[in-house]
Specification:
Layout: H1 4-22, H2 31-48, E1 56-62, H3 68-76, E2 93-98, H4 108-111, E3 114-119, E4 127-131, H5 140-151, E5 155-160, H6 168-177, E6 182-187, H7 196-212, E7 220-222, H8 246-256, H9 259-284, H10 289-314, H11 316-335, H12 341-354, H13 356-363, H14 371-404, H15 410-415, H16 421-441, H17 445-479, H18 485-509, H19 521-569
Parallel strand pairs: 1-4, 1-5, 2-3, 5-6, 6-7
Antiparallel strand pairs: 2-4
Length: about 575
């Protein structure tokens, strides 16, 4: 996991998670939830993005006067940190590190607040001991520095003094921090405890408090740190006590915490970070959220279809008026499919039926550019209010569904804030126009055969009448029995009767009028537009919500993969 490629993938994953927490598309994330997850993300950065070779950061944490600085001096065998028993002395971090480890797990910001003391002791090669400002400090920046350091520590030694070991301000921080880092407790200044019974009572109190935090097996070291800090001449003070676990504490840090144990502690800490991140994200975006979303989408689609049907019924009269306007145009569209004399006959009939204006426009091939505006104006006068009422009703119903399924509603409100009846009327008009165009060009194989047969017959029969008329007129002319115009009128009458009969046959075989639309075009168009509008809203909402969920969960998979790889490598 320590190669550059893995670190880059973890960096991107944490950046993606942080960005989505701060600016969610659809999820409702409260400020305190953002702050909590950001603290987990910062902790994750501290655990994963440190040095390539694992260095265990051991933090010495505790309240004022607990003896943290004295303890780090005892580890160093010399005075590297100023100590005081009555007031906060440590104002910045004091890092005791191996000379080959410069920063350890510290960020540049933390390093700027630290004093570094290097050593060459091999037993502390992969460990950095850091003295921290007091947990109960009244200086906000001091407490913030300590908390930042604890987020990057693999092991925290909590140092207590007999006088203030139950200080609530200290334990309030321990309740959170002990969930993430390995911990051990140090009861310092045991030389000030009056009796063995009192020492045991304090020890049991500490153990009980840690047990309440889920750490009943915590190791507790009892010692007097001052007894192990030599004076400038190198002489140790005469502060021997009956109980002193300094040797055991050194053995724990120097020998027990070897390479594999350090890796185990760090891995356990990373697993704790992932666990807390996952728990918080599961609370914000439960795993059932996606299935609930799909159920709401299904119900929304069904209700939108019902709403479209209701709306079509409400505005049935203007829809019927629109269809009445379209039927003549559709009939003329179909008549244009015929050819020969029969087409001229149909054009003449269209002229008689529908008027000169429409016929002229169609005969010269001009598009009916005023038709969409005619449809729109017809609907707008009667339907705009009804459309807005139906859409607003749909918005409220779906919002209620979202709320009932514990889905966020703010994004839905944003998407549906502007219900525009005029815009929907335009869409319905365009849908009717598109349906009209489709109905005009749609023709079955049987219909094409009928048109071909009628056009051919409409050309052959009049041609036959002409041939017969010419033959009869020529014959009678040479025989001297010419009938004049009487024959022409008879032939014309027969041709008209033939065209009427042929037109009637075509009307029977090839339905006209509203039957050419199939199911009523207006209601179909209304239903499609309402359903499409609601589906677009739902799809936009679903896309944003699922993107939020992915941006929260996929980074966790990246972190978990890194931890699993570490475990396999051990």
């Amino acid at each position: 996991m320590n190669d550059d490629l893995t670190k880059r993938s973890i960096t991107r994953a944490l950046e993606r998670l942080s960005e989505r927490i701060q600016t969610p598309r659809a999820l409702a994330i409260r400020p305190y939830e953002k702050a909590l997850i950001e603290s987990f993300i910062e902790r994750a950065r501290g655990q994963w993005l440190g040095p390539s070779e694992p260095v265990l950061t051991v933090a010495l944490a505790g309240g004022t006067g607990a003896g943290k600085s004295t303890l780090i001096n005892a580890f160093a065998g010399t005075v590297i940190a100023e100590a005081s028993a009555i007031r906060p002395t440590t104002r910045q971090l004091q890092a005791y590190h191996h000379q080959d480890d410069s920063l350890g797990a510290l960020t540049e910001e933390l390093a700027s607040k630290a004093t570094f003391v290097a050593h060459d002791r091999p037993e502390l090669r992969h460990k950095m001991l850091v003295d921290t400002p007091d947990l109960d400090s009244f200086m906000v920046q001091h407490r913030a520095t300590t908390k930042s350091l604890l987020k990057r520590s693999g092991l925290v030694l909590y140092v207590f003094s007999p006088e203030r070991y139950l200080e609530e301000r200290t334990w309030s921080i321990l309740r959170t921090e002990t969930e993430f880092s390995a911990s051990a407790a140090i009861l310092n200044k045991v030389d000030r405890i009056g009796s063995p019974e009192e020492l045991e009572q304090i020890t049991e109190d500490l153990r009980a408090h840690f047990a309440a935090l889920g750490h009943g097996d915590i190791r507790i070291f009892r010692l007097c740190a001052r007894a192990h800090v030599p004076d400038p001449s190198g002489v140790l003070p005469n502060l021997a006590s009956d109980v002193d676990d300094m040797v055991a504490l050194r053995a724990y840090l120097e020998r027990e915490l070897h390479g594999s144990e350090i890796a185990r502690l760090l891995r356990r800490q990373r697993e704790a970070v992932i666990s807390h991140l996952r728990a918080e994200i599961d609370r914000i975006a439960p795993p059932t959220l996606s299935s609930k979303l799909e159920e709401v989408a299904r119900l929304a689609t069904a209700r939108a279809s019902e709403a479209g049907t209701r709306l079509a019924g409400t505005i049935a009269e203007p829809l019927a008026a629109v269809e009445a306007e379209l039927v003549p145009l559709l009939i003329m569209h179909r008549h244009e499919r015929f050819w020969g004399p029969f087409r001229f006959w149909l054009a003449f009939c269209d002229f008689i039926s529908f008027g000169l204006t429409n016929l002229v426009r169609r005969s010269i091939g001009r598009r009916q550019t005023d038709r969409p505006s005619l449809i729109e104006s017809t609907l707008d006068r009667a339907a705009r209010g009804a459309v807005e009422v139906v859409l607003r009703s749909q918005v409220r119903e779906i919002q209620d569904l979202l709320y009932a399924n514990s889905l966020p509603i703010e994004r839905w409100r944003e998407l549906t804030a502007n219900v525009d009846g005029t815009g929907l009327i335009t869409e319905i008009s365009q849908e009717i126009e598109a349906g009209f165009e489709l109905a005009a060009v749609r023709l079955s194989e049987q219909g094409r055969s009928i048109i071909g047969f009628a056009s051919s017959l409409g050309g052959l029969v009049p041609s036959a009448f002409v041939v017969i008329g010419l033959f009869v007129m020529t014959r009678d002319l040479f025989s001297g029995t010419y009938a004049g115009l009487t024959l022409l009128w008879h032939l014309l009458a027969m041709m008209i009767l033939f065209f009427l009969a042929l037109q009637g046959l075509v009307a029977v075989l090839l339905p006209g009028g509203t039957r050419w639309f199939g199911p009523s075009l207006g209601p179909q168009s209304v239903s499609r537009v309402i359903s499409r509008t609601v589906d677009l809203w739902v799809d936009a909402y679903r896309t944003d919500l699922l993107a939020d969920i992915a941006d929260l969960r996929e980074p966790l998979n990246v972190l978990q993969t890194a931890v699993n790889a570490e475990e396999q490598s051990l």
